[in-house]
Amino acid sequence: MMEFISLLMPHLMLAPIMLPMLTAALMLLMREELQRVKLTLNILSTLIGLVIAVALLLWTDQAGAPVTMGVYQPGNWPAPFGISLALDRLSALMLVTTSIVALASIVFAAVRWHRAGVHFHPLFQFQLMGLAGAFLTADLFNLFVFFEITLAASYGLLLHGSGRARIQSGLHYIAINLAASSLFLIGVSMLYGITGTLNMADLASAIPHVDPADRGLLHAAAGILAMAFLIKAALWPVNFWLVPAYSAATAPVGALFALMTKLGVYTVLRLWTLMFSSQAGESALFGSNWLICGGLLTMAFAAVGMLGTQRLTNMAGYAAILSSGTLLAATGFGQNLLTAGLLYYLPSSTFAVAALFLLADLLDRWRNAGARTAPYEDDEAPFLNAELVPTTGLNLDEDEEVLIGRVIPAAAAFLGLAFLVCTLIIAGLPPLSGFVGKIAMLNAVLNPMGVGTSAGHQPGMLGWTMLALMIATGLVATISLVRVGMRHFWASHDRNTPQLRVAEGLPIAVLLGCCIALTVQAGPVLRYMQNAADALHAPGTYIHGVLTQAPVPNPVPVRAKEQP
């Protein structure tokens, strides 16, 4: 298997970008009436993309392999002059996470939502193309190009299904992202003016040698560029747009948008560890305290938001912000072990938030499907006595059917269990992957050099604050989600049995099953994340791999035989 994948490398790196692009182009040539054909193409393309992403991840994690990083020069020009694509463990992880969430979203949309508007399927594939390109590119300008492809597709996806709420929140979403794009261009222009390059590896090589007189301008450029990424990563206070936009989107689009904040986190993690590593001279770890403080404030904001809302889609939006804030704060510490913990937490939280968006659609549909809400005039349950023991002869409803001991419908049981699993993961409660990820990060904060080798080390004020906030936000998330769960599952009765199709339940089960798999395979997964974190904090391999990749020699023409 590995030999076959190695034969396809490095050209296989183009597939996550080219496959959705060609699929979207083909669907644009089809009439809008061919929805079933487009749906089939969309699911098939996304499934093939997942297989390719898993193959790339396996290739980067070969035991004992001399090279675990792939570099591809699409124009066959050497870096830093040509476009470069780079694949390492982090980008492979993001590709797999994206493909899993995308496949779950499109299968869920197949039941009803894909017919709610036009051009849903091409926009969906363009979104995947932009995400894959952003994860693979090794050039800042092309990162901007893929960012814009992703944003342009997200504008259409957010408005899919129309309606006043979607249009209003969509306009705000477009405005804030246009501002972020402007900051992106300004920051990139300033960096190019100072260093003369936009290749990420070449930038990392140039930053330690920047003239001291230009060092302040370099930091200003990096700060402006970081703001563009942090807006996408939903850092407080520039995250006011996220909850209204994500909650107004259709359920599969909201689930797909759970990846958008992780795109912002990825770019911050990639560029900060590359450009401002411990090897960056006077700019080493530039902005780390700002990143930590911003992430901690974002965590606090998200916790207050979760506590202040009872709408499930808003809850999912705040859960996405909480996850993003946790990841950003952990990134700012610049520690290998802590980065490994946040990399484990990243896919787990993404899957859980995406599943919660899908669950919110099913629960809202079930709750509003014909329910008479339970009357609240009587303080006592009609079938219990003062000791809260069932009263003989009163364990019947209006139809003379037994209340206590009645079998829960399978669909209702599935929704309840899925909501319980989401709650455990988002709140970071044992025994699932959210708890494992948080414990890994907390252990790294207390033992930055490893257990048994960090004697006498004090986490400091920021470390203790993060530890306290991770515990407190977990408690607040538990209270908020349990309260909403009681409202949806216990506070109303006389509802019809929820109508749940396999294509709606299967994506949720897959997303949560991935979280359970992360828990069961926590040891191997954490080893993979540790290797990825070590590579991020020692960027020499990345820099050397990109800058030394030689172009493929042109074929030598065969001389024509001399005529006699």
UniProtKB/TrEMBL annotation:
This is Monovalent cation/H+ antiporter subunit D. Keywords: Cell membrane, Membrane, Transmembrane, Transmembrane helix. Its main location: membrane. GO terms for cellular component: plasma membrane. It comes from the Bacteria. It is a multi-pass membrane protein. Belongs to the CPA3 antiporters (TC 2.A.63) subunit D family. Coiled coil: none annotated. Residues 139-361 form the NADH:quinone oxidoreductase/Mrp antiporter transmembrane domain. It is found in: Cell membrane; Membrane. The lineage of its organism: Bacteria, Pseudomonadati, Pseudomonadota, Betaproteobacteria, Burkholderiales. The chain crosses the membrane at residues 12-29, 41-59, 90-111, 173-196, 216-236, 248-269, 289-308, 344-363, 407-429, 467-486, 506-526. It comes from Comamonas antarctica.
